Amino acid sequence: MAEPILTFDTLIEPIGSQMAERYELISADDAKAQERLGDFRVALTNGGLGIEAAWIEKLPKLELIAVNGVGTDQIDLDLCAARRIHVATTLGVLTDDVADMALGLTLAVLRDLGRGQDFVRSGEWAEGKTLPLGRSLKGKRIGIVGLGAIGRAIGERAQAFKMDIGFWNRSEKSVAGWTTFSTPVALAEWADVLVVAVAATGETQGLIDTSVLEALGRDGFVVNIARGSVIDEVALLDALEARSIAGAGLDVFLNEPRIDPRFAKLDNVFLVPHVGSATIETRTAMAQLVKDNVDAYLAGQEPPTSITAKHF
User: Fold this and answer.
1) Which helix H or strand E contains 194, and what residues bound it?
2) Which of 16, 104, 260, 311 lies 20 to 30 A from 86 at CA?
3) How large is the average pLDDT for residues 278-288?
4) Integer Cα distance of 212 and 189 in angstroms
5) Rounded to the nearest 10 degrees, what angle do helices 280-298 and 95-110 cross at?
6) Which of 71, 76, 85 is nearest to 303 (CA)?
7) Whether residue 1 has pLDDT greater than 90
8) Three-state SS for 43?
9) 123 torsion bin: left (phi>0), alpha (psi -120 to 50), beta (else)
10) pLDDT confidence bin for 296, thresholds 50/70/90
11) From residue 200, how far is each of 18, 72, 139, 206, 289 by CA, in Å?
12) Residue numbers annotated as active site
């Protein structure tokens, strides 16, 4: 009999079909899931959805949560560690695409690409009108909040644009030629572009607050490819509306996909719908790693990217 797996997410093809051929995939929305709570050893979800603690408590045999993504802010990791439940993410697979998105958003807001496209499509260019000048990336100071794998990859890309690199990290790190700052406020005071790449945890919730935005100033830009919760969103919207910062490029928000309607009224933001890792290549690689984690666990091995195994 095929191993039942509780699913909160689906995987890109052909990996999804390969999983369905090997295992019995049962959606959490299926009434059958409630009848089989005592059977599931594996649950499959994504970084945005996670899995509620109430679900974990209802699954007495749960031993692996396979996450299609790197976000774990919607998973109670302490509870999982206490119950010896592996939480296995797709760590490392999406680094390059998310870093690319950060630089793409930086280009979009400094060069005002959104307004440029609207300008052409509306016919204003054909009417002889002109756009305000944008800003060059060369020589600008990019401040990276969080120097994990993605933060470092962002810095490496920014170097190719001849930007100066600074960063703040929760633990001490150093990179030759990059400037380290002791607080996010100090980093923001220095930066022209503040890129948020720090993991979303209880400690980092609302990290980019009014004091950071005030330090960034009227000519500064915010780019967020981390999680919406890392920024005090009300403070960000207030700053954008008051133009006390120059603009923002955002891939992540609170309450996705039903984001605050105030964003839609702004002309100094470039918005994309949480698609930092949304390429065929990366989503396929992510799905393959999810499958690898499940296959390994059910073969009696430790999932390759378990982040809770060290606590067992």
Assistant:
1) strand 193-196
2) 16
3) 97
4) 8
5) 150
6) 85
7) no
8) strand
9) left
10) very high
11) 32, 8, 30, 9, 22
12) 227, 256, 274
What average pLDDT score do residues 200-212 get? Answer: 96
Q: Which two three-digit tokens encode residue 263?
A: 């964003």
Task: Give the amino acid at 305.
Answer: T
Amino acid identity of residue 116, one-letter, is G
- Which three-class secondary structure state does DSSP give residue 45? strand
Quote the percentage of the chain above a pLDDT of 90. 99
| Residue 222 CA from chain centroid, whole number | 15
State the residue for tokens 């009300």: 234
Q: State the Cα torsion 252-254-258-259 to the nearest 10°.
A: -70
Q: Which long-range contacts (C-beta less than 8 Å, at least 24 apart) are formed by 18-25?
A: 18/291, 19/291, 19/294, 22/295, 23/294
Q: How high is the pLDDT of residue 43? A: 98
Does residue 268 have a pLDDT over 90? Answer: yes
> What is residue 228's predicted lDDT score, i.e. its pLDDT?
97
pTM over 0.90: yes
Does the pLDDT at position 10 exceed 90?
yes
CA 49 to chain centre: 12
What CA–CA distance (Å, rounded) separates 20 from 44?
12
Q: What is the CA radius of gyration of the chain?
A: 21
What's the CA gap between 271 and 250, in Å, rounded? 5
DSSP 97-146: HHHHHHHHHHHHHHTTHHHHHHHHHTTTTTTT--PPP---STT-EEEEE-
